[in-house]
Amino acid sequence: IIFTIGLIIPLILAIRYSLTNWDGMSAEKTFVGFQNYIDLMKDSDFWNAWWFTIKFTIGNTIIQNVVALLFAVALDSGIKAQKIYRTVFFIPCLISAVIVGFVWLKMFSNVLPAFNDLLGTNINFLLFGKKETVLSGLLIANNWQWIGYWMLIYLAGLQSVPAELYEAAKVDGAGPVKRFFNVTIPMLAPSITICVVGITTGSLKVYDLLVSSTKGGPGRASTSMIYQTYTTAINGRQYGYGCAMSVTLVIVLLLVAFVQVKGLRSKEVQA
Q1: Residue 113: alpha-carbon gap to chain centroid
Q2: Distance of alpha carbon 233 from alpha carbon 255, whole angstroms
Q3: Cα(114)–Cα(186) distance, rounded to whole angstroms?
Q4: Distance between CA 121 and CA 64 in Å, rounded?
Q5: What's the Cα-to-Cα distance from 119 to each of 62, 106, 107, 137, rounded to whole Å?
Q6: What long-range pairs does 138-141 form, CB within 8 A, spacing at least 24?
Q7: Alpha-carbon dihedral of residues 246, 248, 253, 255, nearest 10 degrees?
Q8: Span 11-39, average pLDDT
Q9: How many CA atoms lie within 13 A of 53 on its CB side?
Q10: Whole-number mean pLDDT of the chain?
Q11: pLDDT band, residue 199 (cuts 50/70/90)
Q12: Contacts for 142 with CB less than 8 Å, ≥ 6 apart
């Protein structure tokens, strides 16, 4: 019942409204068929939002998976104060993304530039202020927040790998690198599936981080699909058009998740 009320019904209503030119306020909802979807294909702002979202998603998926896995391997190696490191890395993901955006806005605009005066350097830390660097700044903020979360998933996967497999690999003469790629990675296939799908779908839905940091700027350089949908539907009072955008996002999310799960699960079977 909760699933139906919270997801199925709103999705059906969104599809219905996407076929109208409703402004979100008036009682009249004029049916326009697929005109909103046709207009989307010609909308440069729509495609620019998708381009930013895709770049942000690819960057997040690669960086977070690689760094989280490396951190997990380091913590699983038996280093001292392992629990402290796990706690420190995990704490940022407990913070609201809105606060994370605000914190990194202050870091880039006030805190880090102060080091230029101390060190006598001229490094540009104002990453949110330029179109060329805003994506890098958002990736830093988002990865700082979430790497610890995915690290714990990889760490749980590593600790479930039977020690006998590593011992057998050592007997066969496999070094650390071969053991990592031939034993660790295959046995982590379920964890990799969870992390890749989770990071990808989460990145495609980025919104709250942008609200408190860049507000989609400078210009429209960091406008994501959800941010574009919100500004179109709420600020622009084009609710039907915004619903059409949200429906396309849902379709892409389902397709991406299906392809990733299908492909990664096949690797799990082989492993």
Answers
A1: 27
A2: 24
A3: 46
A4: 30
A5: 32, 19, 17, 22
A6: 138/56, 138/206, 138/209, 138/210, 138/213, 138/214, 138/222, 139/56, 139/59, 139/60, 139/63, 140/104, 141/100, 141/101, 141/103, 141/104, 141/209, 141/213
A7: 160
A8: 93
A9: 24
A10: 92
A11: very high
A12: 56, 60, 100, 203, 206, 209
Per the CB < 8 A criterion, the answer to whether 144 and 127 are in contact is no
Q: What is the mean pLDDT of residues 204-222?
A: 94
Quick one: tokens of 134? 């805003």
Residue 50 in tokens: 């998708």
Q: Which neighbouring-strand residues pair with 31?
A: 20
H-type alpha helices, 42-162: 44-75, 82-90, 97-106, 113-119, 134-159
DSSP 31: B
Given pLDDT bands bounded at 50, 70 and 90, which one contains residue 254?
very high
Residue 120: the pLDDT is: 82
pLDDT attached to residue 271: 47
Higher pLDDT, 118 or 189: 189
Which range has the worst mean pLDDT, 66-70, 117-121, 173-177?
A: 117-121
Contact 90, 147 (CB under 8 A): no
Look up the pTM and report it.
0.93
What are the residues facing 20 on neighbouring strands? 31
